[in-house]
Structures are given as structure tokens and as C-alpha cells.
Design goal:
The structure holds two protein chains of two kinds. Chain A is an alpha/beta fold. Chain A is built from six helices and four strands, in the order αβαβαβαβαα. The two termini of chain A are 32 Å apart. Residues 1-18 of chain A have low confidence and may be disordered. Chain B is α/β, with parallel strands linked by helices. Chain B has helices at residues 3-11, 35-44, 107-118, 155-164, 173-176, 187-195, and strands at 16-22, 25-30, 52-59, 68-76, 81-89, 96-98, 121-123. Chain B is 26% helix and 22% strand. The chains are: A alpha/beta, B alpha/beta. The interface between A and B is medium-sized, with 30 and 27 residues.
Chain lengths: 210, 207
């Protein structure tokens, strides 16, 4: 999804932190394989459905597409027993503190899937009431494009997340550090929030106000 | 044309302004100081019987000379007849109109919504707070024509304010703790809550 996942977003957890002194060896790589195999095949999703994407998410979880094939047998409606936060749908500013609270309540390790155009970028809702991409509120691992994405699209996103999980290593503890909001109450510099919230596509023409 | 318009013209010569038919709907414009008595008459008169307030909303036109209109959609459940009442408010004066919560309890949230979106205050409303936007929302009233589509603040400021707000502060104490407030409710309401929606304690099947 454009500039967003090109590594331009510096998260406080990774920026400037010391890489663990444990160097990869036979034991840690075998342990990584085992742990990541377990983690990636038992991702418990926490559905955060706010709009039509949630309908596609339900279709993905139902018998035809059957999310449980990928170890997502159990929908976790409590953030404390969840691994993946799936934001399915647009996020209004009124819900921004709610999803942040849910994300903070989830135990490590945790991942976030931003499902659909609205969750990823604000989509067609370039208005006063809508967060322009949930990555201004919580860190996102996988963006699934679509309006709404078909179940196959979401499944592909989940498979990509599993691939990402299999590439993690226990030796690097920085990726599992809790990311907190800075003293301004944002998770990234204000200029970056403004930059990634800028209108694009057709909505750059919609500047009329009166 | 709805016959109620002619009745209003005769009965309230001072409060009646004009009438108009649009797409088969009758619209009656009334003066704002006569609004309360006209709506009360429409509700209580047996020949009018507009006992259901469908909606309250407002309209602001792009022409800056045109006044803001507050729209009352009435419906008579008995006679199956709709009627639309409009009040024009001068944009240069205080945007204020009498509350009709005393006539229809359901007007409570509708008036809060109009207040939230247009900044029109309702005199005599028991609890005039924002309802859609959060209470600390400082950017103005979103449906006004002078309101920019993306809001007045920068995106980073909007995200900052949203993240720092307390989600529970959007609700009044009563909304958060209805169970705690149970013993302070009026007897009649407590009775109704205890018995459930139908007003009777349900009997087990087959007795």
C-alpha cells in the first residue's frame, strides 16, 4: 500500500534500541522454528468489525472459507486471549481510543491486520470524523486492500502474516517490545500523521467547504 | 394539499407564515415564537391528531442570505397523514428555538443531534449535549456550510485529541450506571423495569 509499508514509519520500539547480544546459533534457530511454527499455526484473531468488511470477515470465518484451517479456530472476543487484531472496517475518531485500548490490552506477541481500504487509508471517508489509516493509531503488520476484500484476499493477508511470523527470531527481543504512545499522545511524529493522512486519488479535488 | 395547512392559517394568523407543496408533501412555515403552541395544537386537537414526531432536522442552504430551517416531520398514526412544519432562523441572530421535548419525549435525542450538527440550541431541553461527536469536540458543528469537509484541525491534532479522550466521558452518569441508579428512579419506571417490556411478569408455559 504505497509508502506506508516501505519502512518509513519509525516505531519507538525499534528505533535506536540495542539488538540482543544473543547471536543466532543451532539452538536458537531450531527453537525459533519450533516457536514460530506454533505461533503461526495458532493465531487467535480478535475481530474488530466496524463496517461491511466485518461481513466479509464473517464469511471468511464461516464454513465455506473456514478460517480454522489456518489455526484460527477460536475467535477471541477478549483482547487478553488474542494474538491478531483484525480491524475490519472504517475507524472513526470516536473509536480511536477504543482500538488503542484493545491493542494495549493484548499480550505480546501480537500482530495487527488492517482489513480493507477504509482501515488502511480512510478510503472514501476522507472526512472530519474518520481516522485516515489505523496505522496512525496502532502499528499494522499486514494491509489487505479491497472494498471490502473478498475472503480470499483476507486469507492471503493471513497467510502473509503467518509468513512474517515464521521469519521472526527470539534473539531479537526488540520486535516484542511494547510500543507506547509518546508524550504528545501519538505513536509517530505529528508531521508523519499529517503526511500519511493526506488526501489521494479523487479526494484531492474535494477541497470545497462553503 | 393537506387540510391541516388551511386550519393552521385560520387558527394561528400570527404564527402562520406560508405554505408550500413539494413532491406531494405539505410544508407549513411557522414563526418560531408560535412553534410550541402550533405543535401542541397539532398533537392534541382530535381533528389533527399528529401524535408521532418522526424526525427533527435542519437545513442550511448554500445561499448565505437564506435562513437556516429547522424541520419537524409529523405523522398522524390514526389518520395516516404526514405533515412537515418548518421554522426559519435568521443566521445573524442567535440560533435558538423552543424545545418540544415536553410534547414528545422522543424529541430529546433528535434535538441533541440537531444541536450537535448545526449548533442550534433548544430552549428548555433537559439535557442539551452533543450526541454524535464527543463532548470535548472543539472543531464546531460539522453540517454547517462554513465547516470544512475534513474538519478545522490538522489530522495529527485530530488523532491526538481522539487518542487522549476518555471513551466513557461521552456518556452521562445515568447512561453508564442504570443499575446503580435503579433505586433513585420513579416508582412507575422501577415497576416497569422489573416487570419487563410487556408490563406483566411472564408466566411459565403450561400453567
Amino acid at each position: 500500500m504505497g509508502v506506508k509499508d516501505q519502512g518509513l514509519i519509525e516505531t519507538p520500539g525499534t528505533a535506536g534500541s540495542v539488538v540482543s547480544s544473543v547471536s543466532p546459533n543451532w539452538i536458537t534457530t531450531k527453537l525459533d522454528f519450533l516457536v514460530n511454527w506454533g505461533r503461526s499455526n495458532s493465531l487467535w484473531p480478535m475481530p474488530f468489525g466496524t463496517a461491511c468488511c466485518a461481513i466479509e470477515f464473517m464469511a471468511t470465518a464461516a464454513s465455506r472459507y473456514d478460517l480454522s484451517r489456518f489455526g484460527m479456530e477460536r475467535m477471541s472476543f477478549s483482547p487478553r486471549q488474542a494474538d491478531v487484531l483484525i480491524c475490519a472496517g472504517r475507524l472513526p475518531f470516536k473509536l480511536a481510543p477504543v482500538i488503542r485500548k484493545i491493542y494495549d490490552q493484548m499480550p505480546q506477541p501480537k500482530w495487527v491486520i488492517s482489513m480493507g481500504a477504509c482501515a488502511s487509508t480512510g478510503g472514501i471517508f476522507d472526512t472530519y470524523a474518520m481516522v485516515q489509516g489505523i496505522d496512525t493509531v496502532v502499528p499494522v503488520d499486514v494491509y489487505v486492500p479491497g472494498c471490502p476484500p473478498r475472503p480470499e484476499g483476507l486469507l492471503y493477508g493471513i497467510l502473509m502474516l503467518q509468513k512474517k511470523v515464521r521469519g521472526e527470531t527470539l534473539a531479537d527481543s526488540a520486535i516484542r517490545e511494547e510500543e507506547l504512545l509518546d508524550e504528545k499522545g501519538l505513536r509517530m511524529p505529528p508531521s508523519l500523521v499529517d503526511e500519511i493522512s493526506e488526501p489521494f486519488g479523487n479526494s484531492i479535488h474535494q477541497t470545497r467547504s462553503a | 394539499m393537506n387540510s391541516s395547512a388551511e386550519v393552521l392559517r385560520k387558527r394561528f394568523p400570527d404564527g402562520f407564515v406560508r405554505t408550500k407543496e413539494s413532491c406531494g408533501d405539505t410544508i407549513v412555515y411557522v414563526r418560531k415564537d408560535a412553534l410550541g403552541e402550533i405543535l401542541e395544537f397539532l398533537r392534541d386537537d382530535p381533528d389533527q391528531e399528529y401524535n408521532y414526531l418522526v424526525d427533527i432536522t435542519a437545513v442550511e442552504y448554500r445561499d448565505p442570505e437564506k435562513p437556516i430551517e429547522v424541520v419537524y416531520e409529523l405523522f398522524s398514526l390514526g389518520r395516516k397523514t404526514p405533515l412537515r412544519i418548518k421554522v426559519e432562523l435568521d443566521k445573524n441572530a442567535t440560533l435558538e428555538v423552543d424545545s418540544v421535548v415536553s410534547l414528545w419525549q422522543g424529541a430529546n435525542w433528535l434535538e441533541r443531534e440537531v444541536f450537535d450538527m448545526f449548533g442550534i440550541s433548544f430552549k428548555g431541553h433537559p439535557d442539551l449535549r452533543r450526541i454524535l461527536m464527543w463532548e470535548t469536540y472543539a472543531e464546531g458543528h460539522p453540517l454547517r456550510k462554513d465547516f470544512p469537509l475534513r474538519g478545522r484541525f490538522s489530522r495529527s491534532e485530530q488523532v491526538r485529541q481522539a487518542l487522549n479522550s476518555n471513551p466513557e466521558s461521552h456518556y452521562s452518569m445515568e447512561e453508564l450506571s442504570i443499575a446503580d441508579a435503579y433505586h433513585e428512579l420513579p416508582d412507575e419506571m422501577r415497576d416497569r423495569l422489573a416487570k419487563g417490556e410487556r408490563g406483566v411478569i411472564p408466566e411459565p408455559e403450561g400453567t
